């Protein structure tokens, strides 16, 4: 794949690292939206799209180089459960890209060069039971392909600059996603796993095996992990850097524990330290850096302010 089709590579030629945005769904909650719904942030897409636009704009205003769309938990099946038929569901998926594009355009300035990453969350997210942190779905490749294809097609058609395969707990699912992506050879995607620990993805597969399987894929723009405790990020990056020359992406969560049954967060938050340890992540080899659940625009801005060595 040529350089012109890899926006991550292109942007990293212009600057030493890419500052990702932070949480979307929990930021929507902080702003008053109710996400107690199997659709999660996709509920806001249906009922309060202006709130999603607002969060994207907040991140662009503080200097984020990339916005991740609100399509993480959007699926045909999920929308149908709310009485929304396929055509409208596809339009809503495309709207996730358009909302981010509008926020980028309206913010102007440096934001005009920011990327829009179309979020492809895992199959398990649609089950609304925390499966994205476990894997082992017990479904075949055909089921995964049928689930992911419509959203992938919709986000590409809407003009996403690249795709974000994120919180992926299983190598099977990652392989399926890149097999689908091959149907769109001009597109690229980053791959962010969910982690069991610093050397294994959630289902237990080693990072070594994941890199052997997908690390050389020509459409892979970056590889790493998201929604994991920041406390293991440096160890994770250091180990991954020994396995690949592909740009490494990390966007941890706040360090709190999520209960998929009660849909609540508990424990001590560690995200206020992001700005202090982000320079370590860069030094270890990360080149796309941001935050996931329970992180805020203020914390992302502090990463930018503190990583002055870059």
TrEMBL record:
Its cofactor is Zn(2+). Zn(2+) binds at residues 227, 292-293. InterPro entries: BHMT-like, HCY_dom, HCY_dom_sf, Hcy_S-methyltransferase. Residues 6-307 form the Hcy-binding domain. Keywords: Metal-binding, Methyltransferase, Transferase, Zinc. Pfam families: S-methyl_trans. It comes from the Bacteria. PANTHER family: HOMOCYSTEINE S-METHYLTRANSFERASE-LIKE ISOFORM 1 (PTHR46015:SF1), ZGC:172121 (PTHR46015). This is Homocysteine S-methyltransferase.
């Amino acid at each position: 794949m040529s350089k012109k089709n890899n926006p991550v590579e292109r942007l990293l030629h212009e600057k030493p690292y890419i500052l990702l945005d932070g949480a979307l769904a929990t930021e929507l909650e902080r702003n008053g939206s109710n996400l107690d719904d199997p659709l999660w942030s996709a509920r806001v897409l249906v009922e309060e799209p202006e709130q999603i636009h607002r969060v994207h704009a907040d991140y662009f205003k503080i200097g984020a180089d990339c916005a991740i769309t609100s399509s993480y938990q959007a699926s045909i099946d999920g929308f149908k459960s709310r009485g929304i038929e396929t055509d409208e569901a596809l339009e809503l998926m495309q709207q996730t890209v358009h909302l981010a594009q509008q926020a980028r355009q309206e913010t102007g300035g440096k934001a005009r060069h920011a990327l829009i990453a179309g979020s492809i969350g895992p199959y398990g997210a649609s089950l609304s039971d925390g499966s994205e942190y476990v894997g082992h779905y017990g479904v075949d490749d055909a089921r995964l392909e049928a689930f992911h294809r419509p959203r992938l097609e919709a986000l590409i058609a809407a003009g996403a600059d690249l795709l974000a395969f994120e919180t992926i707990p299983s190598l099977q699912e990652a392989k399926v996603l890149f097999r689908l992506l091959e149907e769109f050879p001009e597109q690229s995607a980053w791959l962010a796993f969910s982690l069991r620990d610093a050397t294994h993805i959630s289902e237990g597969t080693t990072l070594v095996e994941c890199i052997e399987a997908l690390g050389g894929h020509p459409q892979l723009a970056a590889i790493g992990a998201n929604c994991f405790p920041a406390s293991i990020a440096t160890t994770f990056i250091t180990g991954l850097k020994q396995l690949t020359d592909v740009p490494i992406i990390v966007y941890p969560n706040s360090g709190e524990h999520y209960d998929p049954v009660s849909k609540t967060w508990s424990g001590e938050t560690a995200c206020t330290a992001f700005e202090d340890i982000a320079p370590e992540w860069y030094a270890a080899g990360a080149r796309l850096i941001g935050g996931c659940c329970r992180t805020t625009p203020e914390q992302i801005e502090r990463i930018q302010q503190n990583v002055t060595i870059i």
